[in-house]
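Notes from the 1:1 (GR / supervisor)

We went over the backlog. Supervisor wanted to see one worked example end to end before approving the batch request, so GR pasted a single chain during the call. The sequence is below; no edits were made to it. Supervisor asked that the structure be written out right there so they could see what the output format looks like.
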Amino acid sequence: MREPTSFKRKVCLWISHYRILEKLGGGGMGVVHKAEDPMTTHLNGTEGRGSQENFRARRRAFRALHEAGCFVIPNPWDVGSARYLQQLGFTALATTSAGFAFSQGLPDSEGALTCERNLAYIADIAGAVDVPVNADFASGYGASPQDVADNVTRCIAAGVAGLSIEDATGDPSSPLYELPLAVERVRAAREAIDQSRADVLLTARAECFLVGHHDALRESVRRLQAFAEAGADVLFAPGPHDPTAIKALVDAVRPKPINVLVVRDSGLSVADIAALGVRRISVGGALALAAWTGFTRAAQKLKSEGSFAGFAGLVSYPDINGFFVTDYRARQSDRRRSAGSPS
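Structure output shown during the call:
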């Protein structure tokens, strides 16, 4: 397939920006579209969440979170889980391609979860909350640096405070991009962010542990150091739970911050991981898997045993519905205040 012309590429990007900004309330041409259903106001910006100043403030806050200490950035898979995590007091959220894909009846792969579908989900989460959102943006939905740059530009338009780019190819016979190309892809993402002037944090991921590299720690260090030189703000090698390996990664890229992924009970607490020098802890699809665990076990008992034992210990309907009633009223109040304020 021939590379699109520069003009065609710009037209495609413009259309993408228009659609995302329309979803977030920018209207694409400076027109704010009001939703008929007040339950969708988190998507159209009438509560102020979609304003450019709001996104700038979130990006400043997100950068500050990485300057000292350690914070947990949980991963909601839909708007409801995002609203609940915000209510608990988490200072930032991250999307999860796995959690969202499963909710859509899809496997966690770029072939199934398209760029457009992921961008719509990212925009939904960014538009639904007031805290910074980091996008799990897979491998950037393109092999070439130019494709990565174009798609990063689209992701920025969705209102994110940060985004991550992986070095995995999706090809089992050659699971990682060769280092020179992987570095160029990170550099292209960096340049796209710089050209946007949006101050979005770039996380570069080395997937060595996840693809079963024979010397995963050493190769992760080599790649993360190269990605840091190419302009990544945050480094991430998902997989290790061993304190020695985590500390080696931290020391290898210091003073740049490291993200650690925790998807099982490894015996380490947040305080333990923070003591290793980690700045950020994400949980990937683990919270979505926690929900799926309860659902599948209850459903299997119901079908195989005719038993309702899987419903024991459920969070009550009044508790969950009560949370959303309170949350909905607060959003309506925000909407009224925003509508009454000078534009």
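Supervisor's comment: The chain has 13 helices and eight strands.
Batch request approved.
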